[in-house]
Amino acid sequence: MKIVKRRGVVKKDKKEALKPVDDRKVGKRKAAVKADKMNTQKSKKETSADKDPNKPKRPPTAFFVFLEDFRKTYKQQHPTVKAVSVVGKAGGEKWKSMSSGEKHPYVVKAAKRKLDYERLMNTYSKKKEVSMADDAYQESDRAKSEVSDEADEEISGEGGGNEVDG
Known about the structure:
Elements lengths: L1 H17 L7 H15 L3 H7 L11 H16 L6 H14 L2 H66 L1
């Protein structure tokens, strides 16, 4: 019987010895991690504020170019259907059933829109670089004026101190 007790004690000791120290405090740490994640996530308003409204929109893919035409024809054929999901599902099924030859005009239109987008992005990025350079120049002017203002204050402060003493 002593052997059984020892084995029981040994097994408990082994289990405790095998457990890492971190496992004992898991509950507290998990709660802290969740709180950190909630604090680091940005709200929708904060993320939308970061976007530049002047930035060009990305071009649609060939499928979305196809959907533009498909929606018009589908609504003419089915005027009672109001759900967007139904139109989207029907468009997806139609797109999958089309051959590459039938998809070709949409692929060409999408490629043309992509080229236009790239041109717009090049001009946008150049304008942005120029405006950032102007901002940096203005900030350096401000910094210089702040330094000179502080120096003027120190000089006038010394002169004012002499008048009070004298």
